[in-house]
Specification:
Aspartate Aminotransferase, domain 1; alpha/beta; binds 4'-deoxy-4'-aminopyridoxal-5'-phosphate; 424 residues; single chain; 4-stranded mixed β-sheet; Aspartate Aminotransferase, domain 2
């Protein structure tokens, strides 16, 4: 199929189709198929919305049964069986075994909707307007969340001031030797810091769009302790690294902390259906009825898919599978890719891994390699400052042989553009 219908009629704002200019038609597991049957291995997975693979059979069956039965599709936020079953499953599979106690707020369908709700709640609860976010953060592009997103490319089109946010460097991204946490605490304690006490701190425990920057468990625990000492809410944006990608359902578990608010979306519905949700510390739930409202807050099919996804996770032992595959990927990246050249840095957590090429003189190195991967039928995205990091986001369910094939493609593309260091 020709692509000129899109080029002619779709707004210039389109983005991913520029990197992958083919027409996709079908998908199964980790493979995308174009309209003429060409196969691509997907290392982007709907930007993390498809952790369980394309058209996951188990989840699909639940969705088909639901539709076949003429069960309710639109429910505003009325009581429905599908919602009740989702909440029950989420409690049974996740919150109770992890001794977590949260209330659920179903938000508009996308991640940014839930971020807006979290911000509004934190500000209303604390009666403070400032929020601390991290350089390199991506929390969405509607006005409130855009104010928390650091990339100037996105910020410059806000059209209004993006205020009430203070940015500090993420763990490893400050100037040499700079201690963000000491700076943060000073900001809170020094009566001359000039910075308003924040309602909340918001962060991704692994910055995804920001270049796969992994916060250590110790750093997260220390940041959390500062928040507790100073009565600042801790909001974990688990939209991309959550839902099992880190090797546990929630990405903060490794730090032994309990965020006041957790933001979930993307893979929550299990099938790529739009859904977002806040987990709220119960005493923070000071909303009055309908104060924050909307038509699509809890889409029934997403509840059905979300429940099936939790059952699937458990039946498959997905956390253990992610941990096993992650150590295979890490080993491959270190032995076969980082070994090609000292300027390559690899890092990540679970099945979110990055290849940082920012130390090469060629600013387009990552983009060229991603383009080459595409030619070799692997879909991979560039993220980070000036898009210099390749982001690997396979399905958590990817088969071992497909994973191996994808990594070999990556290695071959890197080899093509970087060359091989005199390997002895
Ligand atoms: N937070 C994080 C960590 C994200 O990765 C994203 C999307 N990439 C968002 C928020 C925004 O979600 P959405 O695009 O669904 O609005």
């Amino acid at each position: 199929m020709l692509t000129n219908i899109f080029e002619t009629f779709e707004s210039n704002v389109r983005s991913y189709s520029r990197s992958y200019p083919v027409v996709f038609q079908k998908a199964k597991g980790s493979i995308l198929y174009t309209d003429n049957g060409k196969e691509y291995i997907d290392f982007l997975m709907g930007a993390g919305a498809l952790n369980y693979g394309h058209n996951n059979e188990y989840i699909k069956r639940s969705l088909l049964d639901y539709m076949q039965g003429d069960y309710i599709m639109q429910g505003l936020d009325m009581f429905t069986v599908a919602k009740s079953e989702f909440i029950t499953a989420f409690n049974q599979h996740l919150l109770e075994p992890k001794s977590l106690h949260y209330k659920f707020q179903f938000c508009g369908p996308t991640g940014t909707n839930a971020i807006e709700a979290a911000l509004k709640l934190a500000r209303t609860y604390t009666k403070r307007s400032n929020v601390v976010a991290f350089m390199g953060a991506y929390h969405g592009l509607s006005l409130g969340s855009l104010a928390l997103t650091s990339n100037q490319y996105h910020r410059q089109v806000a059209g209004v001031g993006l205020n009430n946010v203070t940015f500090i460097p993420f763990e490893q991204n400050g100037p040499e030797g700079f201690d963000s946490l000491a700076y943060f605490e000073m900001m809170l304690e020094d009566s001359h810091s000039g910075i308003e006490k924040p309602a909340a701190v918001i962060l991704e425990t692994v910055q995804a769009e920001g270049g796969i920057n992994v916060a250590s468990a110790e750093w997260l625990a220390a940041l959390y302790a500062i928040c507790k000492r100073h009565d600042v809410l801790f909001i974990c944006d688990d939209i991309q690294i959550g839902c099992g990608r880190s090797g546990e359902f929630f990405s903060f578990e490794r730090a032994g902390i309990t965020p006041d608010i957790v933001v979930l979306s993307k893979s929550l519905s299990g099938y790529g259906l739009p859904m977002s949700m806040l987990l709220i510390r119960p005493d923070l739930d000071i909303w009055k009825p309908g104060e924050h409202n909307g038509t699509f807050r809890g889409y029934q099919l997403a509840f059905v898919g979300g429940k099936a996804a939790l059952e699937f996770r458990e039946a498959e032992g997905l956390d253990a599978a992610v941990q096993r595959k992650a150590s295979y990927v890490t080993r491959f990246l270190e032995d076969e890719i980082a070994a090609l050249d000292d300027r390559i840095e690899v890092r990540g957590l679970g099945l979110m891994q990055g290849i940082d090429l920012s130390r090469f003189r060629d600013p387009l190195m990552a983009k060229k390699i991603a383009q080459d991967c595409f030619k070799r039928q692997l879909i991979v995205e560039c993220v980070g400052r000036e898009d210099k990091v390749l982001k690997l986001l396979p399905a958590l369910t990817i088969e071992d042989d497909v994973l191996e094939r994808a990594l070999e493609i990556l290695r071959d593309a890197c080899l093509q553009h970087i060359g091989q260091k005199a390997l002895s």
